[in-house]
Amino acid sequence: xxxxxxxxxxxxxxxxxxxxxxxxxxxxxxxxxxxxxxxxxxxxxxxxxxxxxxxxxxxxxxxxxxxxxxxxxxxxxxxxxxxxxxxxxxxxxxxxxxxxxxxxxxxxxxxxxxxxxxxxxxxxxxxxxxxxxxxxxxxxxxxxxxxxxxxxxxxxxxxxxxxxxxxxxxxxxxxxxxxxxxxxxxxxxxxxxxxxxxxxxxxxxxxxxxxxxxxxxxxxxxxxxxxxxxxxxxxxxxxxxxxxxxxxxxxxxxxxxxxxxxxxxxxxxxxxxxxxxxxxxxxxxxxxxxxxxxxxxxxxxxxxxxxxxxxxxxxxxxxxxxxxxxxxxxxxxxxxxxxxxxxxxxxxxxxxxxxxxxxxxxxxxxxxxxxxxxxxxxxxxxxxxxxxxxxxxxxxxxxxxxxxxxxxxxxxxxxxxxxxxxxxxxxxxxxxxxxxxxxxxxxxxxxxxxxxxxxxx
Length: 457
Fold this sequence. Notes:
457 residues; alpha+beta; Rossmann fold; eight-stranded mixed sheet; five-stranded mixed sheet; 18% strand
């Protein structure tokens, strides 16, 4: 018998799950559109020349490559196969790959369609991405990202807007979150003041693990990477600010980075963003986190991460400023900023915290029991009126036994059942059964439409 399981790191989604997922997507779309973001889509596959080199070495390793069609080994020499020269072999047998994120394809889109779009260009995408990562709780190989990006301006108003927009999204979904913010220029300044400006990437990779491995773990990793003891000592103060308030952290950073122009620029940019945010919104928990160093190599300014406060899962969103991402495709000088939500992680958080509205537990509101074709024909005008009111109504297709039809309603969690035999139809009424309480009453058909009035659309 063939294996009918899904590949590791992927999942099927049933009807109830899709109701809930679409609730998440619809909420995000509604808020994105309020802020002027326009929806686009890009292909699932991109040329590897578009994808490679944009995510660092680790990201390149996690790209899913697509074998060329036909005889994909035709360009590979026997000697290369014998030597297992995988790097060169891969280049010859795979020219395309599945997209790793939505930001690089967006940069490619901007360059390809630059004569058609108006700058600044604000777009959002909600599409799946793929990463050849090790599957674990909250981490999948195929998952949907919800991205909002704006290019063509370096205004810090956009960073502020992304925070406010995200706060509204998660407030509507019922998720309490914390916004961790930092600036890549601060990280560059740290590398400068400890005397290792050329090793910024190594430094940030280790620093980004502070919340997982602690201060000692970060210092041990830096030591293993060849950082000297004196460099690590200079680095230590930057690891000890996480529990302080924003003003204290920024003041301390100003002192420690006073000799670094780029570092001070990053501090001032954070100050500007925080000053633009509403001072009276206690729900908007924005925290300056000097150790936040998102691993993607294209961020050049603000970086941010959003974490759910009440769930045992990692970050559910992240993003930042990239000053010249389109430069890799031949168009320089287009600054952009964006944020990406992990829809699958948001789903897991909402399920864990029981945040989905009860209405999403059912595929329909009403089941109409089938006593026979004549009875159903008499009820169809009522069914149409209910659907016109925006109600989800299922007509059971066969005149099966009552127990089977009620079991069907129970299995699909349909809260109400309409039953009407010959006698009820003569009286112009139906029997309405509440599947949650078991109560049932005979109701005139006109009254039924009052009980299920038109929904706002």
